[in-house]
Amino acid sequence: MTDNRAEKYKKVAYYPGCALEGTGHAYNRSTKEVGKALGLELEEVKNWNCCGAMEVKNVDPKVQTYLSSRVMSQAVNEMGHSVVMAPCNGCYHNLKKAEFELKNEEGTREVVDRISKKAGHKTYQAGEVETIHALDWIKHGIGEEGLKKKVSKSLKGMKVANYYGCMYTRPRNIFPEKDKGPGTESTSQPHFMDDLLAAAGATNVDFPLKTACCGGAHTLSDSDMSTKLVLNILKAAEASGANVIATECPTCHTGLEMHQIRAEKRFGVKTNVKILYFTQLLGMALGLSAKKVGVHENMSDSFELLQKQGLA
Amino acid sequence: MPIHEKHLIRPENIKSHDKLVMDGIDISGHWSTFIETRVVKDYNESLQDEIAALPGGEYVHRCWQCGSCTNACTVNAINPDFNPRYWIYLIRMGMESELLRDKDIIWQCVSCNKCTYVCPREVAPEGVMKATAHWLELKGHTPQSPSTIFDDVFSTQVIETGKIEDSLVVRNFFQRTGQSLTQDWLIEMVKRMVAHLPVKMLMALGIATVLRPRTKNWGGARDAIKEYVAEQDAHHRKALGLESLVEMAKLEAAAPFKQAAE
User: Fold this and answer.
1) Are both B5 and B34 inside the same structural domain?
2) Which of A149-163, B7-21, B186-200 has the lowest mean pLDDT?
3) How far B35 CA lies from chain A's nearest CA (Å)?
4) CA–CA separation, A229 and B250 (whole Å)
5) CB of A230 within 8 Å of any CB in chain B?
6) Residue B262 domain-assigned?
7) Structural domain that includes position B14
8) Is residue A21 within 8 angstroms of chain B, CB to CB?
9) Among partner residues B164, B197, B232, which is closest to A297 by beta-carbon distance?
10) CATH code given to domain A153-308
11) Are B22 and B96 within one domain?
12) Do B108 and B85 share a domain, yes or no?
């Protein structure tokens, strides 16, 4: 896949998803701001729908595939886009999964055709769009060298644990472009976020739980389990010497923030590591103010740390 | 004979004697060597087919018991009784009563997909866990788990409007599981959430809860999805031999779930 991606990713269809209009609003804001600052254009998918998150697949996996296929159909048929960028791991995962299932899973095609027809829109055909994550978008659209040139406030002194979560890397078969050697993303040791933040001057700590689970699927239905899983992550980050955890998914981010508070209130375990979206960190490195990238919308209050580092 | 690594020493299988003398030797007490002989007679020969008929369970027959799933499992690291490899074994052998001993924890799978990632046989154990949890509920062995209720609350909103609104999902879920919205950690969370927010943004958040986000012209999709889901549901019930009205009535009676307010 080498390539015209720098050109291709200059203007892409943007699928924020439900979380980015609600609890993950800071991620939405900071993603758009970073895009502007880097000269990468986003055009929101017209009249999009929910991808089904982690829930609809448990009612019926093929309905989830339909939901994702409709988003891609909107992007290609209503807007003529060939690339959809989804910053949320859940949306990104589901669109990738739909693409895989439409190509490989028996019976999926028929169900998607049938619902699309009754819904009155053109059926999405596998291969019509490429789904990418915000990390791919910046990594290939600008690259580390391009980013370095635009950094005006280095993240020097920020010790970052990069947390990618589950949906960005697993299962492997829905990400055919990953694990293809140098320059591609790794599903066991993802590094795109590390690469970008290092280019912005941050120090990435050696963090062992990059792809551990935060229990996001059961964040409310099995809260004690989620709190335990999140505590593992927070404590490992602190033990690695991090002062901030960088996230790239609204569910992970909210899960970490929420269960950090819950651990404190319910189990009396206090952790001090701060939690920021990687786009918030990049935005500040590009000279945007903390407010502009929505730091005030986070539950995890990192103003003091950012002021100390001269970023806010 | 199957090897039951840990279940052999379940407390209820161990014999203990207050006073027992054999060949002149006092062997009173608690002996792990005196295990109740166990004979399995109640095989459900269609168990594997029933699980395979539900979404996610399709590939359960591929398993060759390497144990990679359990080794990689997020939940197993917290609760060693959570053992996907073993449950898949029981499903394949048709050992229903043994499987039912763990019926109250199977729903706790967090869908991290570590098992599916490492599985050398493409069993998709995560899917098998979901199918098994679904099977337990359809058969009336367990009430709806909090996870199923959450899926239901969430999916209903997506299917009805095309989108979700976080706070409504949370409120509906807490209401249906009988939990209070004024728990200390929730209040603290909201406090921190709004700590730095300007008034304008707080108002925007408030408006979103009234004017729910929705996808335009969604009616056709909604009806088509509902029709398909109902059709699938009928298929599943038939595959599990649940089509009779008597069974349906039993299910209705077993369905309500109430979790004591924390």
Assistant:
1) yes
2) B7-21
3) 34
4) 37
5) no
6) no
7) 1-39
8) yes
9) B197
10) 3.40.50.11810
11) no
12) yes
Domain locations along chain A: 5-132, 153-308
Would you call B150 and A61 a contact, using CB atoms and an 8 Å cutoff? no
CA distance B236 to chain A (A): 11
Q: How many domains does chain B have?
A: 3
Same domain, B127 and B218: no
Question: What is the mean predicted confidence (pLDDT) over A22-37?
Answer: 96
Cβ of A49 within 8 Å of Cβ of B130? The answer is no
Q: How far is residue A165's CA from residue B4's CA, in Å, rounded to a whole number?
A: 34
User: How sure is the predictor about B195, in pLDDT bands with cuts at 50, 70 and 90?
Assistant: confident
Q: List the single residue in B149, B197, B224 with the smallest CB-CB distance to A296.
A: B197
Split at pLDDT 50, 70, 90, the class of B15 is confident
Among candidates A66, A222, A261 on the partner chain, residue whose Cβ is nearest the Cβ of B147? A222
| Strand runs labelled E in chain B | 14-17, 21-22, 25-26, 29-35
Poorest-confidence range of A293-297, B36-40, B164-168, B252-256? B252-256
What pLDDT is stored for residue B4 in this prediction?
Answer: 41
Question: Is the ipTM beyond the 0.85 threshold?
Answer: yes
Give the closest residue to A85 by CA, choosing from A30, A41, A147, A143: A41
Please name the residues between 160 and 179 in chain A that touch chain B, using a CB distance below 8 Å. Answer: 166-167, 169-172
Architecture of domain A5-132: Up-down Bundle (1.20)
Domain match, B51 and B15 both: no
Query: Which residue type, as a one-letter code, is found at position A236?
Result: A
Asked whether the beta carbons of A228 and A115 are under 8 A apart, the reply is no
Tell me what percent of chain B is helix, strand and coil, each rounded to the nearest 5: 55, 5, 40
